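Q: I have three molecules that I believe assemble together. Could you output structure tokens for the complex as a whole instead of separate predictions?
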Amino acid sequence: MAAKKTRILIAKPGLDGHDRGAKFIARALRDEGYEVIYTGIRQTPEAIVQTAIQEDVDFVGLSLLSGAHNELFPRVVDLLSQKGAEDILVFGGGIIPEEDIPSLKDKGIAAIFGPGTTTKQIVEFLKSARESS
Amino acid sequence: MDLVTEVRRGNLRAIARTISLIEDLEPEAEGLVDDLYPYTGRARILGITGSPGAGKSSLVDRLITLERRRGRKVAVIAVDPSSPFSGGAILGDRLRMQTHATDAGVFIRSMASRGYLGGTAAATGDVIKVLDAAGYESIFIETIGVGQTEIKIVELSDIVLLVLMPGAGDEIQAMKAGIMEIGDIFIINKKDLPGSDKLLAEVRYVLGFKNHSAGTGREWDGAAGEDADGVANPVLMTRADSAARAVGEDGIEQLEEAIDNYAAQIESSGKLAEKRHFRLERELLGILNRKVHQLMDVHIEVSKQLPGWADLLYRRDTRPYALVNEQISKFMKERAGD
Amino acid sequence: MAKEIEKHREEWQRSTVEPLLRGRPERRSEFVTGSDKPVQRLYLPEGYSEAQYLEKLGFPGEYPYTRGVQPTMYRGRLWTMRQYAGFGTAEESNKRYRYLLEQGQTGLSVAFDLPTQIGYDSDDPQAEGEVGKVGVAIDTLQDVEILFDGIPLDKISTSMTINSPAAILLAMYIAVAEKQGVGRLHLRGTIQNDILKEYVARGTYIFPPEPSMRLITDVFAYCSREVPLWNTISISGYHIREAGSDASQEVAFTLANGIEYVRAAVAAGLDVDDFAGRLSFFFNAHNDLLEEVAKFRAARRIWARIMKERFQASEPKSMMLRFHTQTGGSTLTAQQPDNNIVRVAIQALAAVLGGTQSLHTNSREEALALPAEDSVRLSLRTQQILAHESGVTTTVDPLAGSYYLEALTDRIELEVWQYIDRIEALGGMIPAILKGYVQKQIQESAYRTQKDIEKGERVVVGLNKFQTEEKKPLNLLRVDPAVRNLQIEKLSRVKASRNASRVEETLKQLREGAKQQNVNLLPLILEAVKEYATLGEICRILREEFGEHRETIVL
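A: Yes, here they are, computed for all three components at once.
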């Protein structure tokens, strides 16, 4: 087994309790060889960022279906930046209208994966993001 | 960023990065661990183990709260197995401790076992040093105590907390796996479940038996008694769920007290120093073994060649000791030529 | 199976099927239901004797209710068309409710936002970004007054999807009705009030299981006396299915939860026939039409037996499984949203053929946002076309006797009993949940399903097959983030104008009551809401007294 692993934090910010997607992704990424830290539902942006830093993750994956993405996703990005951890890439998934994607990307979210996304698509993103960093 | 200075300052990023370097077996890790070593030795290291579902993380979560109230900085290393198929892992222990996620005085790190050369214990041992040097006064190492690897990890601690749960078949498990040997404090969690009294009696029995046979020279009256150094193994009953806590019936305060008392006792009796000494011996041995292996790898590439050698042996084209001795001679010659 | 038919089947297989298969094999080596269960090529009469028919199927309106809980079903009264709705402020939701009622909806269904569902006021830091997004924001009685402004509560039945703070919303509803001059004896409606499924599938829990069950049984007791027409709970399988379970698990875990609630109520001293008639259920309707119909029938049969044999109910109403259905949200795609209209129609048909008492149909853009007005109108029309044009309402349980359907019903029943037995062996639903058994079953099923979709073995039209590049622009509903500020303003005005000392007094009483086991909290909550204590204030007291539940099961 190679020593170096890519570490990913999968978190659900805000109050949304629908964790089927997040749990699936966590497990699917584990099966692809990633180390996935899964912190469950109802995480504040502050908790997510602190966790990301302590766990020294390469990526943070945010899952949200309640419509609060425009408020909460950029918050996570900003807090990471404030703590000097802007090299940690943030991606998001869930119920996110296409029209919101450009502004989320502007605010620093590296990728958005809407309903119907496959594991393969996410892994492709993770691999190419690593290569270009 | 000068990692050593930053770690000592308690910079979370620096601590986390240093831990990663250790985990990833990066060459600079060695120097970092050495540079931080003079600043270690202050932390109290608590290993907590038990079968899955016994409630270790929930207990640690509660203990963290109490430690924080006493003004201590706390770190937790939660170790989970990597998947033997994909090499990945799901690290979910911290989910039960996330109320502390924003407390600057609490550092939680999830580690996957990764199938290290030399065992996860080696990396964990070095990670403990980093956290120690960073000023964390209580360091919990949490792992599932079902195998030899996990027992090795838990032996890195000053005090081992063994968590059992009624009705889980623990009664038999406890006596078989040799777990009882390494446990210092025994906790029966989820005490509200049926069978908890029975389990308590069984644990006390086994402890009494073990401590008696260790030769205290006293008449054994069937009680839990003390071990050879005269330090009693506390056995406690807890309920680490939120409903119990709300009505103050969870037994966690008592546990915290028992830990503090036990710690004081083993310190004054000299047992702690003995333990730490022994631990260092084992650590040194581990480093030595790893280094020798690495050295050999420079000239011989052991891991790469191993399957080929095994094949030769399988076909009976060579003999085991002859093969190895040959390789060692080869190594010595090439070394001399360096 | 009758010998003649069996002989014929063998002959048919040999001389008619095999030759065809050699030239044209079937499209798959194995066919399965939506729940991955094997489906045979052909179903034949199982040779139900008359006694067996009477035992397993019987007559609608009679035990075991397999064919329906009413003797005339939709010939007597159509199902209630009840579209789940709510967003933004109470004013905006009120508008949507009046629109739906105008368009022919026959019952109200209220969706609350997440802060409300989890007991936080709109000004709570935890509410950031969430106010008004997935439902209406309710902070005080005033919001509920606005919500039902112009809606006569004596003429309309209201279902409220609220769980942990259900008692509080019920109290507010009662208080609003009082102001309208409507007595509680006349109030009709439902509160979801089903905490057990929250722990495994939905996530809006607040308190740990024990005190949550206490609140629920308080509601049962209070309503049996004070609000006799109210459905005190909607024991839900919908969310369990959405979380990824299959059809049998959906029924099994729902009924197992039901068993737990009945047990708790009986333990609290209630007579089963005093409250069981007001228990209702809530199921999903997924894509596999016949499996879904079978599922509903099996559920009725099993629950009737449980109530009769396990709990010795004697009132027929106590044994009848009455349910609301919602079409499966997780089956809808963001790709080619118009396809969803077709999916919903099929799913609604399944619910109707399965004998549902009320129905919500999803809208085409459901995978992306809450529905816009014209979308939700179309969903309603779907129900109306089914009701008035399709003919399936003209007779009761029309698919009965279909060999496949009866075989499916029997199979699902068998699987459900197996799950229920397993859960009993674990000590009941609460231990099963705390041990993670239920969650594990759901997740295994969810993982398998998703993998099958990714592998292409499970076709989702427009998603992994028959894809198109073109994107049709939709006018998606957006909730104005200004809602939060509006609510905060409203909240501070209410707090300024209420009687602060009365609020404090009622909250104090509530805390005292919460500390004791044998005090019914409903009257105390009612007093507090009448003084305009906020939802957050009430929940904070309860959080302090009961503790907060935190998830412990990972994956």
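A: One point stands out. Chain B has a mean pLDDT of 84.
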